[in-house]
Amino acid sequence: MDVRRSLARWNIGSQRVHSPIRRYGFSVLSVAIALGLALLSQAYDFRDGEAPLFNLAVALTSWYAGVGASILAVLISTACFSYFFTAPLYSLEISNQDLPYFFLLTAWAVVIAWFVSARRRIEDDLRRTGDDLRVEVEQRKHREGEIRKLNQELAKRAAELQASNKDLESFAYSVSHDLRAPLRHVAGYSELLQKQASSLLDEKSQRYIRTIVASAKRMGNLIDDLLAFSRIGRAETKMRPVKLEQLVKEVVAEIRQDTKGRDIVWKINALPVCYGDGAMLKLALLNLVSNAVKFTRMRSRAEVEIGCIENENDLEAFVKDNGAGFDMRYENKLFGVFQRLHPSEEFEGTGIGLATVQRIIHRHGGTVRAVGAVDQGATFYFSLPKARAAERTAKVHEPAGTHITR
Amino acid sequence: MNPLGRILLVEDDPRDVELTLTALAEYNLANEVTVARDGQQALDYLHCREEFSTRPNENPAVLLLDLKLPKIDGLEVLQQVKSDNRLKTIPVVVLTSSHEEVDMMRSYELGVNAYVVKPVDFHEFVNAVKELGVFWAVINEPPPGSVKKLP
After folding, report:
1. Virtual torsion, Cα A114, A117, A123, A127, nearest 10 deg
2. Domain residue spans in chain A?
3. CA–CA separation, A330 vs A400, rounded Å?
4. Band of the pLDDT at A352, cuts 50, 70, 90?
5. Does residue A233 sit at the B interface (CB-CB below 8 Å)?
6. Among A71, A73, A328, B146, which one is least packed by beta carbons within 10 Å?
7. Which candidate from B13, B22, B121 shows the least CB-CB separation from A181?
8. Terminal alpha carbon distance of chain B
9. If you average pLDDT over residues B20-46, what whole number do you get?
10. Contact partners, residue A51, CB within 8 Å, separation at least 6
11. A185: contact with B, CB 8 A cutoff
12. For domain A236-405, which architecture applies?
């Protein structure tokens, strides 16, 4: 709107007069000036100037004040011409020999009026189109500026993110390097003390030392798990089709080595090919399956089922057990970092396994959820994009994607 | 007389040195260790210069190398050792706190012979160091030109 107004200001020369009083006033005024000039030129013996002057007045009126005012101008001009410049002078009477002359003058004035108003209309249309175009250009410029600003903001945010990612990385690095060393020393020297002074220490003191050692070890595990967890967040995902069933079989084979002597009924259903990072998904499955094995420890016969529900666009895999289960009220806490629902004397662990699973699945654009009841087992679901759907989108985006990675 | 060790331990933290030597002592290997406290000292030892200029000109059987070191860090020591014709045959074992993939990748790219993350648990630590010492200083045949096994 502002643009339009400022444009209008530039076009004052071609601005139309709008109020009717002004329009007809303009008509009368222009004819009066023409008359004045005509009388003046006559007084100076300048002949035959009156007709062009009146025509000029009609033309100007038509240009600035529109059709109605120009008709008035034609009428007044004709009257003035008749009154002041044709015999009999100072009378509106028109002699017969002047009649064609008057007719011509009027016709001429009408033609001029018509021509000028047509020209005016075209001019107006053109100006309006021009204005519209200019407004369009201005708006486009404005939008372009906004886009540029947004792009700059985005680039800034990306740089900030990269910086904070780098901070995080160096943080993890120094945790890895520097935090584990003193811990190792605490554990090491406690052990040495125990060895050195075992004959001097009573049972209570020895228990203290054992607790120090165990705590140091536990903290070491926490740090390792936290580092592994942060690594998942920073690692690049290498997405490709993954045979879920094969992955599950590998994971189960790995876990079976540690569960010899236990009666576990494994039920592995047919699983489809999904789309994702094989190594990460394996880690997620390893966490879920080893949880199932851990929390069924008190069952004389443990049951672990791994299966999948296929939906239209994604698939939802699940790991189901008949173990300790959990209270659904705490479902949202299950996937938090270092969140545990069971005392560590009962089930060991740092409480980072499900957080790791969630992070991995989120990085695949999927979701996790859990269903269970206390002492009635638990089922953990995670959704993943289907291989075909994902590949289709991957193919569409591939040129851009490869371009960026190069 | 400068010490002549078959194991060169490059480690800046005195506590880690003590714990490592304690572990090696269980196999009577502690006496065969020379300790360098930073990368510069390690390179001085290997090149027989500065304080080590009088030592017999033989390479250690193994180099146990920490990564985070004052002055010259472990990766740079590794790089210098592996790009020096006279030193590149020395087996180098990185013995570090770092679990970080970048360190591992870089070490292997530079030609490290083994990469061991120091366990927090002391028993595991002792076992790891003991096995390393026994394997590299006793079982493994070092390249010719290394310090000979004592009779």
Report:
1. -160
2. 1-234, 236-405
3. 43
4. confident
5. no
6. A328
7. B13
8. 21
9. 87
10. A81, A105, A108
11. yes
12. 2-Layer Sandwich (3.30)
Contacts of residue B19 in chain A, CB cutoff 8 Å? 184-185, 188-189, 192
Q: Do A184 and B16 touch (CB under 8 A)?
A: yes
Chain B residues in contact with A191 by the CB 8 A cut-off are: 122-123
Query: Which of A381 and A313 is assigned the larger pLDDT?
Result: A381
Q: How far is residue A57's CA from residue A76's CA, in Å, rounded to a whole number?
A: 10
Q: Please, where are the H alpha helices in A175-277? A: 180-197, 203-234, 244-256
Q: How far does A233 lie from chain B, in Å, by closest CA?
A: 14
CA distances from B76 to B72, B81, B103, B105 (A): 6, 8, 12, 14
What CATH number is given for B7-139 in this structure?
Answer: 3.40.50.2300
Which amino acid is present at A157?
A: R
**For residue A212, what is the nearest residue in chain B, using CA coordinates?**
B121
Domains of chain B, residue spans: 7-139
In 3D space, the residue among A93, A24, A19, A28 whose CA is nearest the CA of residue A54 turns out to be: A28
Q: Are A324 and A298 in contact (CB under 8 A)?
A: yes
- How far is residue A359's CA from residue A54's CA, in Å, rounded to a whole number? 89
Q: Which tokens in the block code for residue A372?
A: 């269970």
Q: Which residue has the tokens 């600035």?
A: A64
Quick one: tokens of B136?
């590299």
Span A370-379, pLDDT tens digits: 999 988 899 9
Q: Pull the structure tokens for residue A202.
A: 């009573």
Question: Tokens in use for A298?
Answer: 């008190």
Q: How far apart are CA B52 and CA B38, in angstroms?
A: 14
Sign of CA dihedral A88, A93, A94, A95: negative
Query: What pLDDT does A380 receive?
Result: 93
- A60-76, pLDDT tens digit by residue? 888 888 888 888 888 88
* Position A12 confidence tier, pLDDT thresholds 50, 70, 90: very low
Phi, psi of A231 (to 5 degrees): -65, -40
How far is it, in rounded angstroms, from Cα A164 to Cα A144?
30
* Residue, of A234 and A322, whose pLDDT is higher: A322
**Coil, strand or helix: which one is B136?**
helix
pLDDT tens profile A293-323: 989 988 888 899 999 988 887 889 999 999 8
**Alpha-carbon distance B38 to nearest alpha carbon in chain A (angstroms):** 16
